[in-house]
Amino acid sequence: MVAKLYPTIRKSLQQNLHQSMHQQERSNLDHYDKIALWQELNRLGFFQSNWHGQSRPWQPTVQQWQWFDWAISQPKTHLFLGARGIGKTEILTIFRCVWQILHNPRISILLLTGTQQRSQEIVQLVAQMLQALQIPLISSGRGSFRTYQGRQQKSPTLYSASITSRIRGDHPDLIIIEDPLDEREGYSHRKKERVMQSINEARRMAYEKVFLIGQFVAPDDPYAQLCQMDQIAILTAWADQCPDLIQVRREEFVVQENPMLAYSWAINMEGRFLAPRGALFASITTTDQVPSQPLYAVLDPAFGGSDRTALAVGGCHVDGTLQKEIIIAWVFSWSGSWHDHLHQMVEILHTMQVDRLFYEGKRHQEIGEVFADFAIESEGFDTHLNKRYKIEHVSGFVGLGRLRLHESLHQEQIDRIRHWHTALPHDDEVDALAMLTYRLFHLDQSSRRFWKH
Fold first, then answer.
1. How far is the C-alpha of 291 from the C-alpha of 261, rounded, in Å?
2. 58-268 CATH pick, 3.40.50.300, 3.40.1390.10, 3.20.110.10, 3.60.10.10
3. Separation CA 338–CA 190 (nearest Å)
4. Fewer Cβ neighbours under 10 Å: the N or C end of the chain?
5. Where are the alpha helices (DSSP H) in 113-258?
6. Which InterPro entries match (predicted)?
């Protein structure tokens, strides 16, 4: 059945396609409606991509329109799986909400995401698009709104909540569950169980449909469980299914600069799950190659007690096999305070001709002053990343083969990294390695200085 757009907007959407639309069968009307609507939103400044610092409108590829057509045609619960960066949120969540509301102003849609803030941001963006299309709205707060034609006794036209919220109120016509899990939560059994409970609750509550959009993050995540249920319609986006999309969105460029995105593509485009963190580090490889770019060092200083002082040195290098940039690193560690091993560190930094040393803890200015006496330029930094995130950040590099230890390292140091998760009480070496990778991949290539996060 062909639904109708608001009369006030239909005319403006169809002006550019007026002649061609009259030449088509009525069954093709929805196709032109969605194309015209997207183009109108482009004209109004929405769906812009940032490419090399320039903002430009982007159009969905044939594959993306096929995903959209599939999603809106499903009668019950349906699940779309695909990697980060392929346009899931833009076309299957944001644009779908706009399109469905325009075609049925009395609809009620509940949006669930990983956080309340994310849900509210999407609802606000949808509201901005509708208002730009001159659709009057009644706002019910940051996370909900109602169209004037909506039924007052029903739930709002579009409202939001986090995936961990208890779902209450009337039964919505459509529940969209958008990326409730990310890569960092793949190891959290508690979060995976909570998300699965919320999905089951949403399926019981929805009046008509539940639409899940996400990505595989672990072999036992909720999506893997849903894929085994016969009553759920499933569509996945693999690399060989969307070559045009990859070319248009230029994701290879993005992947090289974003390890979490690379992790997502390894799983969802290549079907390659990364091993658990322990197994990952147990298989970290060594190389005889040396970095072709300047070396930098990160110091994780200890101040006594049972802590260890760890020094990670490394730089970037383009690997001929991967055709991508990798990090080659050396890691050194000692028991006790950093000051007790100062001369060893100075010798390493001078011998390796390290460009710059970064030490954790801005307040410890005495570290920088001491190294300055040895003509070593240094800078303190404060990290806002918790230890778990840092370990998972470096795990992504290890699993993708883009972080390697130099074979000149003493075998004891290599073993300390490979077996830190089982045999050692501390993770200072891996922590320093994680901070090195994080800072190297936030290097401002134009000025050869690190971004300060």
1. 24
2. 3.40.50.300
3. 38
4. N
5. 116-132, 189-205, 222-226, 243-249, 251-257
6. P-loop_NTPase
